[in-house]
Amino acid sequence: MTCNLVSPFLFLFFFLLQFTCNLAQAPAMAPMPPAQSSAPASLPPTISSPPAPILPPIVASAPAPGPPGPPNVIKILGKAGPYSTFIKLLQITQEVGEITSLLNNSNSITMFIPSDGAFLNLKTGTLNSFSDQQKAELVKFHILPSYFSLSQFQTASNPLHTQAGGTTNREFPINITTNGTAVNITTGIVNASVSSTIYTDNQLAIYQVDKVLLPLQFFVPPLPPAPTPAPSKPKKDDPSLDSSSVNVVPSGATSLLPHMFWEWSILASYFSFLFACAYELISHMQDQHACDIMLCTFKWNLIRC
């Protein structure tokens, strides 16, 4: 049993002895080279630059304001007084856009604005009886396509043309007369007066009138166009005027007619005289035979002539 225990120990001893000899005979590891520094060996000397000047911050300038837009008619009327009815007409007929376009294009206009009280003085249902087109024409009838100051109405040439139409055939003219500082407007239906000045500049003038300006064409239809003249009917053929039935005398023969007529007249008178003498002579002759011979001779000579 002792021999059995010694044998493994001997085997283990020889194994460790052999392993130690192998390690002693293994080559030694080469020494690691020293680590090289990553920094460059030498750098050129740097030249310090002067510090940059400190500039003040740039502040963007605000753009120059553009030219002022045209005056806002709705705002002017809204601030001036009770003109809500006319403002509503401007909006529902879209005429306010046309007015703005005219003013944007540097056109001058003059407006006559009735107050709400002037609309209330109309006959009941008058405004509602107008069609949409007539309402638009009613608004335009209160606008002149040029600028008039109160003093310029004194030299206005009647009838005045409105934005609604021309001045002929009962279209949309108005007549303006002045009496001192009073300005009177006549439409053929209404006689109104300028009550006050609402707004004025060199492009737009707005005046209040005491009545609604009603166009004549709304109540009196325009004159019908003049009838075109009917083409003249050709006259019936007159035989006396027919050129084919007229004997055309040559111009040369025309000049001879008076002379020939005069000669034939003399000859006729002469032969009449001879015939009377011969008849008287023959009637006194006793020989009938001789009378007959003389009469026949006379007739023969007459025929020859």
From TrEMBL:
May be a cell surface adhesion protein. SUPFAM superfamilies: FAS1 domain (SSF82153). It comes from Datura stramonium. It is found in: Cell membrane. InterPro entries: FAS1_dom_sf (IPR036378), FAS1_domain (IPR000782), FLA_A (IPR045003). Keywords: Cell membrane, Glycoprotein, GPI-anchor, Lipoprotein, Membrane, Signal. It comes from the Eukaryota. Residues 70-213 form the FAS1 domain. Residues 227-246 are annotated as: Disordered. Its main location: membrane. This is FAS1 domain-containing protein. Pfam families: Fasciclin. Coiled coil: none annotated.
